[in-house]
Amino acid sequence: MSALVQGLALRKTFAGGVRAVDGVDIAIAQGETLGLVGESGCGKSTLARVLIRLIEPEAGTLTFRGQDITHLPDRAMRGLRRDMGIVFQDPFGSLNPRMTVADLLAEPMVVHGTGDRAFRRARVPDLLSMVGLLPDHADRYPHEFSGGQRQRIAIARALATQPAFLVCDEPTSALDVSIQAQVLNLLSELQQRLGLACLFVSHNLAAVRHMAPRIAVMYLGRVVEEASREHLFATPQHPYTQALLSAAAEPGGARRTRIVLKGEVPSPSDPPSGCRFRTRCPRAAPRCAAEEPVLAEVAEGQRVACHFPGPLSPPP
């Protein structure tokens, strides 16, 4: 299956030498949802924004529908942005409080020249219905809605121009637990109904398991494991993935044997030599300090960046 969105050796460094994204390869096919997980500060949100060029990559290659858009001029890039949408973590912060819902939903269409005024006026109630809201909500302002309703408005806004690729950056983390499942179900339904390619970013493993058939795990700016949902949860190969999963409840409330990582997360501006996870890894060996592991296939559809992948045991 060809990739709709693909990044090769993507890098992004911020002030102070913070290597937020440090040589990441990633691909998402049309109609596919890829989950992206990892601890806070691992580079998930930066990578998500790089993929739609809200943040410019400093190195690597980024393609969309086979077209190299890495250094595409702003004017040419603007024509592609209607095919890309993003849902942010905080729905209140992402919606202009001075605009009505109707104006918020119409604005992306105005910016990208989608239809005339009559078309946009007719599309607003359709968008509201699509996310489970009522047409008469169009005349209200963001502060008149609950957090879950505001996120539904943000989702409708992201879909206003009928994008092919949707980034969901921690879309439920700011919501009450009772509302999170409703929004996840809505996103899953819309992704399947509209055939969207979707990057679903979260630190919540249960949410990612629900949303994404394929999952990538990030640590300090790099992808350390990528696998299908079934393989990742049943046979995680990287010790970092195993530690993340050990802290999460299994369906039915069961838990794995807890793996407690030693030490603190290293500074992304000065990561360890070799494998950057080695300072916290229970199976670290001298080779890990001297040689950087590459993301390599260990089973069909499962790639791991580890010198000693597999169940936790002392290294050879």
**Main sheet specs:** 8 strands, mixed
β-strand amount: 15-25%
Cα-to-Cα separation, first versus last residue: 37 Å
Radius of gyration: 20 Å
Strand order within the widest beta sheet: 6-7-8-3-9-10-12-11
Spans of at least 5 consecutive residues whose pLDDT stays below 50 are none
Summarize model confidence as the mean pLDDT: 94
Structural class: alpha/beta
Q: What's the tally of helices?
A: 11
H/E element sequence: EEEHEEHEHHHHEHEHEEHHHEE
Shape: globular
Strand segment count: 12
Question: What is the percent of helical residues?
Answer: 25-40%
Structure description:
With 316 residues, the protein is of the alpha/beta class. It has a domain at 239-316. It is built from 11 helices and 12 strands. It has helices at 44-51, 74-81, 91-94, 101-111, 117-130, 147-158, 177-194, 205-211, 229-234, 239-246, 286-290; strands spanning 3-14, 18-29, 33-37, 59-64, 67-68, 84-87, 165-169, 197-201, 214-219, 222-228, 296-299, 302-304. Strands 6-7-8-3-9-10-12-11 form an 8-stranded mixed beta sheet, with helices on both faces.
Helix-strand layout with pairing:
Blueprint: E1 3-14, E2 18-29, E3 33-37, H1 44-51, E4 59-64, E5 67-68, H2 74-81, E6 84-87, H3 91-94, H4 101-111, H5 117-130, H6 147-158, E7 165-169, H7 177-194, E8 197-201, H8 205-211, E9 214-219, E10 222-228, H9 229-234, H10 239-246, H11 286-290, E11 296-299, E12 302-304
Parallel strand pairs: 3-8, 3-9, 6-7, 7-8
Antiparallel strand pairs: 1-2, 1-4, 4-5, 9-10, 10-12, 11-12
